[in-house]
Fold:
Amino acid sequence: MDILALEKKYKENSAQTKVRELESKLTDFQGNSENISEISSELSYYSELSVKTSQIQKDLKELKNAKEMLEVENDHEIKEMAQEEIDTLEQDIEVLDNDIRKMKISKRFSSQDDDRSTILEIRAGAGGEEASLFAADLFRMYKQYASKKGWSVNLLEASISESGGYKEVIAQIEGKNVYRDLKYESGVHRVQRVPTTESSGRIHTSTTSVAILPEAKEVDIEINPQDLNIEVMRSSGAGGQSVNKTDSAVRITHIPTGIVVSCQETKFQAQNKEKAMAILRARLYDKKKQEEDDKRGDMRSKLIGSAMRSEKIRTYNFPQSRITDHRIKKSWFDIDSIMNGNLEEILKEVKDGIINQLLKEEDKSE
Structure:
């Protein structure tokens, strides 16, 4: 352990100064609830960081004193006590230093969008009907998790396959910190199982893509009405009595980017247009964020940026009741429970695993 380097690293407790600034802001605050929530969140982070920094400063001072005592003391018993204190303090300092580093990396991973609602997009990939059935299973999994968290799920668009699965399903998930909890779910999810249509019992492999987009507000993305080509048509496919009777379905093309969105989930054209615009705003906002990530080109961008969208991030092996996340190389063996929405453990361990990867990368570069 390099004590001198740690003493230099923790010479100042700048987090303490930040805490006083934020407390003063809250005292004199005049603004909306969204801003006060952001300040409170910052205060919580810097308060914890300040406490841990103060503790490591205290431990480093005590470690220095204990080492001095060990050098000058002649009494064998006292020397033993000093050595025990040194061992304990060194362990505590190592844990605190690691905790502080994790906090700072986690802070870097945090986003201004973390407290936002999201647009969830799931699309069947390779595997035909089996892929669409798995898309439906994933949608159900996220719905169940959302229900446990007290979030609401609002279906925006769905394309149903012949087998009753989803070729594509898009939904809005509203609630506190939805994007923060789900943002690492974007990517290709692979399933290995025996399809219900398979008479020989052969295991098939299929894929489904998941995209988690932060919901964008009108102030986030300025859309020029002249850049939109809006078409209305009659709804098609499974639906209620209004299907094929009214021109309620809406398709919007954003001409500059070529992004096309559609919605036919309600029998009211205005509602479908509003939902389609919500999807369009989210995709344009996500595109803007991806471009910013690409410019930054750091490790954070590589792990949660656009590249991950096309990569296989997780495999669901039903015969072995195993789910494996390939980013952190970890498996879980309770697939039925997870598919029923019990995602807390897997989401936390994926986030922690990615942070640990960053810690290792920083260690290499030091």
The longest strand covers residues 204-214.
